[in-house]
Specification:
Layout lengths: L1 H10 L5 H29 L6 H32 L5 H46 L1
Length: 135
């Protein structure tokens, strides 16, 4: 959502109903992308002998191309709506701007921030697992 807000601000577009619809669709795509990524890492962690770091790196490698293709195709599809100047463009501008900015931020955050958060969450959860296993 940060990318959508930043691009709205940069382009000088006010938050509107159209932009809110863009945020709703963006939220769905971002959640789907994150869930698929985490599911891939969880499946790799079940592999014997594979460390957490290796599972996260392999998951990032495998998920990079599908995410990149999804985002590039969507951005290319929404770019004409974001740049349109004709009749009805006042509705298209906010929605397309939110989707384009949000998807670009989603690509960066999903591929770089999500792995770091996954590792940190696992490290924070590890001491709790040891305490409950000892009891």
């Amino acid at each position: 959502m940060a990318g959508g807000l930043i691009l709205l601000y940069v382009r000088g577009i006010n938050l509107s109903v159209s932009a809110a619809v863009g945020f709703i669709s963006l939220f769905g795509v971002a959640v789907m992308s994150g869930l698929l990524y985490v599911a891939d890492i969880n499946a790799r962690r079940r592999t014997p002998g594979l460390s957490l770091r290796e599972a996260v790196v392999q998951g990032a490698r495998v998920q990079f191309r599908p995410r990149l293709v999804l985002i590039v195709v969507t951005v290319l599809g929404m770019l004409p709506a974001a740049l349109a100047r004709g009749i009805g463009s006042d509705i298209q501008h906010p929605l397309a701007t939110v989707v384009v900015g949000g998807l670009l931020a989603t690509l960066i955050l999903t591929l770089f921030a999500l792995p770091a958060i996954y590792v940190l969450a696992d490290r924070l959860r590890a001491p709790q697992r040891q305490v409950t296993e000892a009891d």
